[in-house]
Amino acid sequence: MASIQTWCQSPSIGGMLATNMDNPTRAMPFVFGDYMGLRMLPGLKGSAVATKFMPQYPGTSRTAGCSCVLQPRAAVNKTRLHDLYEQEKQSPWYDNLRRPVTILEPLIKSGVRGVTSNPTIFEKAIAGSDAYDDQFRQLIREGKSVEDAYWALVVQDIQDACDLFQALYDESEGGDGYISVEVSPLLANETERTIESANYLHKTVNRPNVLIKIPATAECIPSIKQVIASSISVNVTLIFSLQRYEAVIDAYLDGLEEVKGDLSKISSVASFFVSRVDSFIDKKLEAIGTEEALDLCGKAAVAQAALAFKLYQEKFSGPQWEALEQRGARKQRVLWASTSVKNPSYSDTLYVNPLIGPDTVTTMPDAALNAFIDHGKVARTIDADLKSAQDTYDKIEKLGIHWSDVGSLLELEGVVSFKRSFNNLIKSLTVKADALAQSNQTSSSCLCLQRQIKVRYGALNSAILLELARMVYQPTRISFTH
């Protein structure tokens, strides 16, 4: 925009052009002066300026000497992710987050429309990189506790990612561009503390496109309702069964009912986990060992997901939903999570290709994302054969593998896994903090000894003083990475 202002002899006109071209995604009229009514159309960009058809300066015969020639914006190289959204209305999100957050920029260009994170992702990011060390050192020196420092690191990443996706959030009018951050996994069985944590994260991140992740445990179902009632957008995570999914939807609808006024600023997704279901049930089927059981391997997760989509369509219809929709309510989209393939004999797009449907989200880690971009198939598949999905679901139940038990056990496993990641990272950061404290204490002792030597022996070369101090204290060299 500065180049436009430089070419323009009129700073005020240049400023108006710059202001309107900063947001080229929709028609922007000039709303005052001699240019009232001139509009910059979507898909256009300023490319040149010329002295042509411009008004005169008041009281002079000089023209303003500036006009903007508009040309079509350069075409974006489309990927299957763009096709997925444009053709089938499924939003592809990225299931990973680490520093530098700017690595998300090429993913946005490739068609990624949001980001999910969890405690395990942050454990890998923070413990496996030195990108967080400088900020961590500063936080500890400021007197922050290790856990407070952890949350400061997380919040910084979430804020930076939200800012990167802000334009997409605005362009989609709040449909996409969301970044998810999870409450402490240590609170998975505590209703009130989960509510407090969700409110804290929402206030601290302070971005309109943040989703607060809350686990779908029995204790947190009331938390979901209350947080939604507080007009906070939520990503409900760790859903493994149809029964719990229905409870999550009901909590969302009940929460919306308690909100007064416009509902359009509240968004939510329900993260239904997929591949972990097959990993668990396949082991049970292999243990049974019959031909019928073995034939069902690798089919359970997709079958249950298809039935979840059917439930989604049923719940977001009818009088209750229609009344909420008239107040601006958005559907709580189902989000397919855990889309990476655990069994190497399965197709690497097994948990993406068969789960494509409108008004849904699929969040993919690197392997699944790259596989779909390379050879995924874009077509509506999620409800292509609901009868077969129901048959598969029923056969598994008849074999003695009870879906309610599967959901409960996987939920417990997920909670334990996230708690383990969180605790491991806090332990790792505590070691770093202790090492940093020891380093600071040693440095302080070295300085004190240097002063004592100087007083006793007079002026010595500073390098000699430092070496003498080091010989006494022999400080340990500290690494802040694993």
TrEMBL record:
<keyword id="KW-0808">Transferase</keyword>
<dbReference type="InterPro" id="IPR004732">
    <property type="entry name" value="Transaldolase_2"/>
</dbReference>
<keyword id="KW-0704">Schiff base</keyword>
<protein>
    <recommendedName>
        <fullName>Transaldolase</fullName>
    </recommendedName>
</protein>
<comment type="similarity">
    <text>Belongs to the transaldolase family. Type 2 subfamily.</text>
</comment>
<comment type="function">
    <text>Transaldolase is important for the balance of metabolites in the pentose-phosphate pathway.</text>
</comment>
<dbReference type="InterPro" id="IPR013785">
    <property type="entry name" value="Aldolase_TIM"/>
</dbReference>
<dbReference type="Pfam" id="PF00923">
    <property type="entry name" value="TAL_FSA"/>
</dbReference>
<dbReference type="InterPro" id="IPR018225">
    <property type="entry name" value="Transaldolase_AS"/>
</dbReference>
<dbReference type="InterPro" id="IPR001585">
    <property type="entry name" value="TAL/FSA"/>
</dbReference>
<keyword id="KW-0963">Cytoplasm</keyword>
<comment type="pathway">
    <text>Carbohydrate degradation; pentose phosphate pathway.</text>
</comment>
<keyword id="KW-0570">Pentose shunt</keyword>
